[in-house]
């Protein structure tokens, strides 16, 4: 199955400045039609799963912008509605799914913490952060929840606990560096979080180097026995000082991830509809 690419990347390509702390979630208020258009571009490229513009959406993040809980909940629901609107614009020639994006706690901090983890919070506090947004997104009736860019095992545990009783299946995807989480834990330990959780129906990695995707596939299958999702970045490098991407794309031949046993493949940062079209063509 083909997942979409970098939603924020596509929105930036359409002329939007996403340097705001809310990132793409800001456009849920400022330019919702543009979000729908970006989803549609990925669907037309061959993606059959769209991830919503809710990665950076949280009650705390919206509150920092003076947006109350009622409006914040409505905006989170809107993220699912916009993806569904894009799906409805297309011919009903194949099944297409909506995955409600649930980013890590560090995304709300908007300081790069999602690439470090180890926030210094008790697990119970992380559960308390994630559970309300999971409830709101689930109530919007997505097909599944994308618990993504998770940097450490502790947050994986918290998300699994927060997912209990939600009633919508989820995948759990870590951001990694080599064979370890961004926080430095063995990836095998991270995947074990999902092994016995019935609500987590797939596991994998995202927002990482394309070179790290392949080795994670066999490990995820061996540890969990569940379908594997992989959607790395293009391979370019983020220069935090200059606040820009540098170097060439190394997205390469993503069909190799299917050959290695991945069930869902796509892209994250800097992956455009043209990349997804090539991926869809390569895997048929």
Automatic annotation (TrEMBL):
> Coiled-coil intervals in this record?
none
Q: Which InterPro entries match?
A: BHMT-like, HCY_dom, HCY_dom_sf, Hcy_S-methyltransferase
Q: Which cofactor does it need?
A: Zn(2+)
What is the top-level taxon of the source organism?
A: Bacteria
Q: Which residues bind Zn(2+)?
A: 207, 268-269
Q: Which Pfam families match?
A: S-methyl_trans
Where in this chain does the record put each Hcy-binding domain?
1-283
UniProtKB keywords: Metal-binding, Methyltransferase, Transferase, Zinc
Asked if DNA damage is a keyword of the record, the answer is no
PANTHER family recorded: HOMOCYSTEINE S-METHYLTRANSFERASE-LIKE ISOFORM 1 (PTHR46015:SF1), ZGC:172121 (PTHR46015)
The entry's protein name is Homocysteine S-methyltransferase
| Organism whose genome encodes this protein | Saccharopolyspora taberi
